[in-house]
Automatic annotation (TrEMBL):
Keywords: Aminoacyl-tRNA synthetase, ATP-binding, Coiled coil, Cytoplasm, Ligase, Magnesium, Metal-binding, Nucleotide-binding, Protein biosynthesis. Residues 65-92 form a coiled coil. It is found in: Cytoplasm. The lineage of its organism: Bacteria, Bacillati, Bacillota, Bacilli, Bacillales. The gene is pheS. Belongs to the class-II aminoacyl-tRNA synthetase family. Phe-tRNA synthetase alpha subunit type 1 subfamily. Pfam families: Phe_tRNA-synt_N (PF02912), tRNA-synt_2d (PF01409). It is an enzyme of class 6 (ligase). Gene3D superfamilies: Bira Bifunctional Protein, Domain 2. This is Phenylalanine--tRNA ligase alpha subunit. Residues 111-320 form the Aminoacyl-transfer RNA synthetases class-II family profile domain. Mg(2+) binds at residue 256. It comes from Alteribacillus iranensis. GO terms for cellular component: cytoplasm.
């Protein structure tokens, strides 16, 4: 048995020396050290040996196992090191090459416009307030003095979720909710930016979804002159100090009196051109004094409190500021278009 163990050691070491892969090494290991291997068979016959021979054979068998296992580990390490070296050589990186440019994103033009408008009104003492986009019929219409038979409540104008829930058609519901939270105690001075939804055919100047910013100021002694002063300051900060505003009579159910607000044309300086349709003015937003009924429905005493409200479309202000001619550019995610605003 001693001679047989010596032979097995020599055979195993020679086969390991010839092995050319980790798989070959593992096959030799299983062949000689496995449960069905020749070394195991030799050990099973030790029962036939004398008491003197048994320890010698057992010791030699352990030595043979250890030698083979040591060789297996040595060859495996060699193979793995060679494989790693080959991989590193094949994946070598030339560190002298210039690095690849990392493309940086930027704020979307609508986001930039909203943030700019917010900054202006925050500087004027307004707070930014938000509300739900899925709104109840009450806050979207009734609380804003829009009776059930008003044309704006027609199903063709709004996206209804249920008979009493719809996608808000304006951010004015945020104003109604905020006034309610004040429990009839002013002042309330907020702007409400957000998405609104209306049934409309998408074209160069219309979209079924668009961004809106509305403002509200309710306190004792608020006058139309305060509204004009605030809007005039806003326009000069947004468009430039040389721009002016004018107010034209209009009608909105939630304000009385109501006005349309125009800004002097920045292209022709009010002289008249194609952009302003030769009028020298461009309509930008609607405004007015909060209707007494709206104040009363929100818990304010209309004899003690007054206020003004205004609303503007963000896309319109972006179109005017950047000279864009199609509102759809804002929503089509065309990189060529968006790349122009990386510094905005």
């Amino acid at each position: 048995m001693i001679d047989r163990l010596q032979e097995l050691r020599e055979e195993a070491l020679q086969e390991l020396e010839k092995a050319s892969s980790v798989k070959d090494i593992d096959e030799v290991r299983v062949k000689y050290l496995g449960k069905k291997g020749p070394i195991t068979e030799v050990l099973r016959g030790m029962g036939k040996l004398s008491a003197e021979e048994r320890p010698k054979v057992g010791q030699l068998a352990n030595e043979v196992r250890e030698d083979i296992q040591a060789k297996v580990e040595e060859k495996t390490e060699e193979m793995e090191a060679a494989a790693l070296e080959a991989q590193l050589a094949s994946e070598r990186i030339d560190v002298t090459l210039p690095g690849r440019e990392v493309k940086r994103g930027a704020r979307h033009p609508l986001t930039a416009v909203i943030e700019e408008i917010e900054d202006i009104f925050i500087g004027l003492g307004f707070q930014v307030t938000e509300g739900p986009e899925v709104e109840t019929d009450y806050y979207n219409f009734e609380a804003l003095n829009l009776p059930p038979d008003h044309p704006a409540r027609d199903m063709q104008d709004s996206f209804y979720v249920t008979d009493d829930m719809l996608l808000r058609t304006q951010t004015s519901p945020v104003q109604a909710r905020t006034m309610e939270k004040h429990n009839g105690v002013g002042p309330v001075k907020i702007i409400c930016p957000g998405k609104v939804y209306r049934r409309d055919d998408d074209d160069a100047t219309h979209s079924h979804q668009f961004m809106q910013i509305e403002g509200l100021y309710v306190d004792k002694g608020v006058r139309m002159s305060d509204l004009k002063g605030i809007l005039n300051t806003f326009v000069k900060n947004y468009f430039g100090a040389e721009r002016n505003i004018r107010l034209r009579p209009s009608f909105f159910p939630f304000t009385e009196p109501s006005v349309e607000v125009d800004v002097s044309c920045g292209i022709c300086a009010g002289e008249g051109c194609r952009v302003c349709k030769q009028s020298g003015w461009i309509e930008v937003l609607g405004a007015g004094m909060v209707h007494p009924r709206v104040l009363e429905m929100s818990g304010f005493d209309a004899k003690e409190y007054s206020g003004f409200a205004f609303g503007m479309g963000v896309e319109r202000f972006a179109l005017l500021k950047y000279g864009i001619d199609d509102i759809r550019h804002f929503y089509t995610n065309d990189i060529r278009f968006l790349d122009q605003f990386k510094r905005v």
